[in-house]
Design brief:
Rossmann fold, alpha/beta, single chain
Length: 255
């Protein structure tokens, strides 16, 4: 049975894989046997993450890519795929958050969040699917969603809007590409102790609220998410598409 969870021989690409949840997913995919490429726009963080991964998994690579420049993403994807000898698995993890009351958010900031969190995953998924279709090969995509796919909190209107769009994108792409055995699913993290959430983690009042509000009583750690990514990418999940699995410590189950 455990063979169904193996990713041996597969090649995976993880956006925003140089830290946080992306790096945690990259590590677990590599442990399951995949050759993993991570992309990010910070060369120092990329090198550090690549060196970390290569201590146990020599087949890991990193590439510089700015997801905000969506016009060049398909060309960038083709270059990365050629360097890797093809991509079988894609995790659209990278995202940004710009906080502020909705009436105070500039249009440019709203569009920036949407471009990185929503448009970039769409464009990369198009590039991935086009390549798989041309070779008549199956594939699997994971979108990293959020609790904000289902709910919101004050000061998060651009991020919530982007993740709501991602939720529906998962369904739309899954339906379009299901006839070609390209599966599209999502993972919805709860509150995780990551760099992006550092202002929240460092706020004693908010951190106490997270622990009280989450039935399992703690912040999520990056390692909590990787096993779900391996499952969704593996043959064990071969009949799952168009779904989001919330890895949130029970947050959405309670009120």
């Amino acid at each position: 049975m455990l063979e169904e969870f193996s990713l041996a021989g597969k090649k995976a690409l993880v956006t925003g894989g140089n830290g946080g949840l992306g790096l945690a997913c990259a590590e677990k995919l590599a442990e399951a046997g995949a050759a993993v490429a991570i992309i990010g726009r910070n060369a120092v963080k990329n090198d550090k993450a690549q060196n970390h991964l290569r201590t146990k998994h020599p087949g890991c690579h990193s590439f510089i890519c700015d997801l905000e420049r969506t016009d060049g993403l398909k060309a960038a994807y083709r270059e990365i795929s050629e360097a890797m000898g093809g991509i079988d698995l894609l995790i659209n993890n990278a995202g940004i958050q710009i906080r502020g009351r909705a009436d105070e958010i500039s249009t440019s900031d709203f569009e920036k969040v949407m471009r990185i969190n929503c448009t970039a995953p769409y464009v990369l998924s198009q590039a991935f699917a086009a390549e798989r279709l041309s070779g008549k090969k199956s594939g699997s995509i994971i979108m990293i969603g959020s609790l904000m796919c289902e709910a919101s909190r004050p000061g998060t209107s651009p991020y919530t809007s982007s993740k709501g769009a991602v939720r529906q994108m998962i369904k739309a792409l899954a339906v379009d590409w299901a006839p070609y055995n390209i599966r599209v699913n999502g993972i919805g993290p709860g509150y995780y102790a990551t760099e992006m959430n550092k202002p929240l983690v460092d706020n004693p009042e908010f951190s106490a609220w997270v622990k009280k509000r989450t039935p399992l009583g703690r912040w999520g750690e990056p390692d909590d998410i990787g096993g779900t990514a391996v499952f969704l990418m593996s043959e064990a999940a071969r009949f799952i598409t168009g779904q989001i699995i919330y890895v949130d410590g029970g947050w959405l189950a309670a009120f």
